[in-house]
Structures are given as C-alpha cells and as structure tokens.
C-alpha cells in the first residue's frame, strides 16, 4: 500500500452534472463504494443538487459564483490523493478537470459505462492516467482495482530549481508534444537509461 493509509486517503469524485438523469444511481453507488472501501471523499457536489437547480444558482450568482465554484473544484483536485471521474456523458468541463488533475501530477481515474468510451481522453499517454470500463454489476470491483493501480503509480516526487530559460523551454516543448512537464522529464531519464543500457525493469 506504500505511503497511503486508506483511512486518510482523500478522493475527489466528479461526474457530468447533466448525466444525473441517466447515471445518478451510478454516481450514488460510486460514493457508497468509496466510503465502504474506507476512503475519505472530500466533496459530493454532483449529489448536492439537481443539475437544473445547480446551473440556475450558478447563473444567478454571476461571476462570483462561477469563480467560487471553479476555485472549489481546483482546490479539491489539488488536495486529493486520487481524482476519480465518471465520464460516460460527454462534458467539456469534466474533460478540463481530468486534464488539470493530470497537470497537477495526480493519479487520475476515468470510469465509463458500456460502450460510452470517452474517445478523446482515451488518447492520453500519461502514466498516472487510468481508464476503466465498468458495468453496474462489476462497478465496485473495477473501482477497487483502479484505486489500487493508482496507488501503485504514485511515485515519489521531488522538487528542483531551474532557470527561467530552462523552465520556458520545458513548458513550450512539453506543450508542443502534448504531454505534461513531468512526463517530458521522465522520458528524458528513460532515454538516458536506455542509452546507458540500464535495466529499466
């Protein structure tokens, strides 16, 4: 289990608000299973209100409400140990959250039901990104396996200082190649290991 204690492991779960009509029972099951597995779920925004009420309140609140919701979501993604997203219903907002989770170097689990494969997300090559297909019958097992895989992929991290020029190059190059900065650095290390004929394992 590594550095994680399940009792203190924080999970942020989000799903498409507009998918409540079809998937609300699935959303409820995911929360239920996370709690049964003894993870700490840090937000239940997708269950707090019906989507129509939720969006009406946001629009009524104007810029401040939108900013507060954005900040809330970003803080949740940053503070969670693992982020879990149900992506059976196409959603630009949800896709953005998935990408931010990857950008923050968080283990990121995307679940989808049946044939509802999120085609764009399926192209992600980030090593902390995990995509799993499920049915209602095997949802708990799939979720549990995905979380175990996420914990295994949570490598130790380290911080280091580089010059602004190097940072700019790193940001531009990783963006051009469509990968995160951390993945770009990991790829360089792996290439160096291959050149030195080091066993990657």
What does this structure look like?
The chain has 201 residues and is an alpha/beta fold. It has seven helices and five strands. It has helices at 20-36, 45-48, 51-79, 92-103, 139-152, 164-177, 181-195, and strands at residues 10-15, 40-41, 82-86, 108-113, 129-134. A five-stranded parallel sheet has the order 2-1-3-4-5, sandwiched between helices. The longest helix is centred in the first third of the chain and has 29 residues, at 51-79. It is globular and about 55 Å long. The relative contact order is 0.13. The model has no long low-confidence stretch (mean pLDDT 87).
Please indicate the count of domains. 2
Strand content: 5-15%
Mind telling me the CATH class of the largest domain?
Answer: Alpha Beta
Structural class: alpha/beta
Largest sheet strand order? 2-1-3-4-5
Q: Specify the biggest β-sheet.
A: 5 strands, parallel
Helix content: 40-55%
Q: How would you spell out the order of helices and strands?
A: EHEHHEHEEHHH
Number of helix segments?
A: 7
Average pLDDT level: 87
């Amino acid at each position: 289990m590594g550095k994680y204690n399940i009792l203190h492991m924080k999970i942020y779960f989000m799903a498409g608000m507009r998918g409540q009509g079809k998937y609300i029972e699935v959303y409820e099951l995911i929360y239920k299973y996370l709690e049964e597995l003894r993870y700490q779920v840090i937000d239940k925004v997708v269950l707090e209100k019906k989507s129509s009420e939720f969006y009406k309140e946001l629009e009524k609140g104007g810029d401040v409400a939108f900013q507060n919701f954005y900040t809330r979501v970003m803080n949740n993604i940053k503070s969670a140990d693992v982020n879990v997203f149900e992506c059976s219903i196409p959603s630009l907002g949800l896709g953005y959250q998935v990408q931010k989770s990857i950008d923050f170097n968080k283990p990121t689990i995307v679940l989808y039901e049946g044939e509802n494969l999120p085609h764009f997300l399926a192209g992600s090559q980030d090593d902390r990104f995990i995509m799993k297909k499920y049915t209602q019958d095997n949802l708990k097992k799939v979720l549990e396996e995905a979380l175990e895989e996420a914990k295994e992929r949570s490598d130790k991290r380290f911080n280091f200082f580089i010059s602004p020029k190097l940072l700019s190059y790193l940001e531009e190059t990783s963006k051009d190649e469509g990968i995160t900065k951390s993945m770009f650095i990991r790829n360089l290390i792996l290439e160096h290991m291959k050149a030195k004929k080091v066993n990657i394992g």
